[in-house]
Amino acid sequence: MQWIEVVLRVAPDDVDAVADALRDVSPAGVSIEPAIRTLDHDNFQYELLDEPTTLRVCLAGPLTTADRRALRRRLAAAAQAAPIAPIRYREVRDQDWAEEWKRYFGVLHVGQHFVVRPSWEAYEAQPGELVIELDPGTAFGTGQHETTRLCLQALERYVRPGWAVLDVGTGSGILAVGAVLLGAASVRACDIDDNAIAAAVENAQRNGVDGAVDVRAGSVGAEWPWDERAEVSADLVVANISSVALNALMAEMAAALRPGGCFIGSGFIESGRAGVEAAVRAAGLEPVEVLEDGEWRCLVARKS
Amino acid sequence: MAKKVRAVVTLQIPAGKANPAPPVGTALGPHGINIMDFVKSYNERTAGQDGQIIPAQITIFEDRSFQFVLKTPPASDLLRKAAGVTAGSNNQLRNIVGRVSRAQIRQIAEQKLPDLNTNDVEQAMRSIEGTARSMGIEVTG
Questions:
Q1: How far B5 CA sits from the closest chain A CA (Å)?
Q2: Does residue A43 carry a pLDDT above 80?
Q3: Staple A218 to which of A68, A223, A266, A275, CB 3.0 to 4.6 Å?
Q4: Is B11 on the interface with A (CB under 8 A)?
């Protein structure tokens, strides 16, 4: 996909109207970045300056000269407080923005034993540490997010040597790799995002556990990607997805557990907790505990 | 430890549908923040509000950590829904694309109040009415 970033600076009083016009041509959304001046680092305080605000949208390219003229007319009509400055157009490539955050992703210590090491960082493991070497690409799961940390902590507590694990919505594969490092004999990891599949496969190889981690495109239910049946196939199911996805998939995930098996679900905040607990009970599981980090929650349940 | 604010970015995007493609990736990526962490957090916090534009005001710190708060939908989005139209008028002086009642204006003003520089509903209503006029939406009743 070729993206053309459209950047313009408008007077603060025109921001709402011009942003509205931009959303008409770019339903995916608008980015608004006002000029600020930091006042107090201790309180994160800043003030908005009475200077032009930068608005950005991305349009599917290419844009013809006629397209650009029409866009300018539309935006100029929306701006009432001041004439709009020249509009800048810039072709953007995925790697321009998708990789930048990696410069600030360092070694992370998670739970009792886990160390998440970016594949481009050196780290000397200490005795007792379990090091996960990771390049998540554009998939979720770096260890920076609260839910990933909560799931790794829960895996530390509940995974037993020799267990079969099912990782639903594996993302970068960080939880699948973590489960094997904790002693799981095998992990089936699935995701509906092709970028996640590629990242999870690479990360399993990178950590030398690709013989134990089987990554497939799919999910539980109708999109189950393995030939063997899903029911009663796992000692532990882990799913760091979202409240909506957890609730929708709970019955199938519970069915995949063997009696006495353990469910670890995260990706939801306190407001979604009651719904997830209800779905867990409705699926025949018994909640054991809820781990918390800020507003985020991780529910552990058992199948009797 | 105190952290310096690097930038404040507001994304006006559809609730529950954030993904790493533009505009999220192109707006946040250059600031060095973890795009997928934002995507997951935004989608979960806006779950159940499908069909609405829910702005996220993101404060990005020098160490590239971030926090964000959700804002009320843009007035224009609320007006479009109230009037049952998909877009505003290209010429608001000549083309009236829809109508909303004073009661609907009040309802929108009350919803927007937390994000406006006033606690006065009547003043907020005048502001919303101005937005409606600029979109070619007529206020009746």
A1: 6
A2: no
A3: A223
A4: yes
Residue B108: strand pairing partners? none
Span B92-125, pLDDT tens digits: 666 788 999 999 999 999 999 988 878 899 999 9
Subunit contact A138:B3, Cβ cutoff 8 A: no
Residues in A touching B27 (Cβ below 8 Å)? 31, 33, 56
Domains of chain A (ranges; CATH) run 3-94 (3.30.70.120), 105-303 (3.40.50.150)
**pTM, whole model, 2 decimals?**
0.90
Q: What is the ipTM of this complex?
A: 0.89
Tell me the chain A residues in contact with residue B89 when contact means C-beta distances shorter than 8 Å.
none
For residue B125, give how far its alpha carbon lies from the nearest alpha carbon of chain A (Å). 16
Which residues of chain B from 91 to 130 reach within 8 Å of chain A, CB to CB? Answer: none
Whether the per-residue pLDDT at A101 is higher than 90: the answer is no
Q: What is the pLDDT of residue B61?
A: 92
Across chain B, what does the average pLDDT equal? Answer: 89
Closest Cβ opposite residue B12 in set A32, A142, A267: A32
Q: Is A42 on the interface with B (CB under 8 A)?
A: yes
Cβ–Cβ below 8 Å for B47 and A34: no
For residue A277, the distance in angstroms to the closest alpha carbon of chain B comes to: 16
pLDDT band at A81 (very low <50, low <70, confident <90, very high): confident
Residues 6+ apart with CB under 8 A from A67: none
Contact between B97 and B137 (Cβ < 8 Å)? yes
What is the structure's pLDDT at A279? 98
Q: What residues of chain A, 183 to 222, have a C-beta less than 8 Å from chain B?
A: none
